[in-house]
Design goal:
The protein has a single domain (3-90), classed as GMP Synthetase, Chain A, domain 3, CATH 3.30.300. It contains 2 helices and 3 strands. It has helices spanning 3-20, 55-74; strands at 28-34, 37-46, 78-88. It has a 3-stranded mixed β-sheet. Strand 1 (28-34) and strand 2 (37-46) form a beta hairpin. Helix 1 runs antiparallel to helix 2 (55-74). The relative contact order is 0.20.
């Protein structure tokens, strides 16, 4: 892998990570030739949108962000863009407190 290829993959991974709501180090970007354009495949965890956005919508937004911002930053024309969500991003758990009435009591046995 050349330095230019590594840099390009890093830029595309960073753009995808921003759209997915995860860290760039958690996102893997692969590239290959797509009939003269650059095909991109990214894999990484996603954080569900705060406004009720589904993971499918996050994936679609990530693809659109890569098509626009990734192409602009990398200076290349992108072809096929594939986004694979591998799980939930760290810290993706809900920040909404659980009401006390929904807590499950735990019983401990001591011998």
């Amino acid at each position: 892998m050349t330095v230019a290829e590594r840099a390009l993959r890093g830029v595309l991974a960073a753009v995808a990570a921003e759209q997915l709501g995860s860290r760039a180090g958690d996102v893997d970007a692969r590239i290959h030739d797509d009939r003269g354009r650059l095909a991109v495949a990214v894999t990484g965890p996603a954080r569900p949108g705060t406004s009720g956005e589904t993971l499918i919508e996050v994936g679609r937004r990530t693809r659109e962000g890569l098509a626009a911002e990734g192409a602009r930053l990398a200076g290349v024309q992108l072809g096929a863009i594939r986004v694979r969500i591998s799980g939930l991003a760290s810290g993706a758990a809900s920040t909404t407190p659980i009401p006390a009435s929904n807590t499950i009591p735990t019983t401990r046995r001591v011998r």
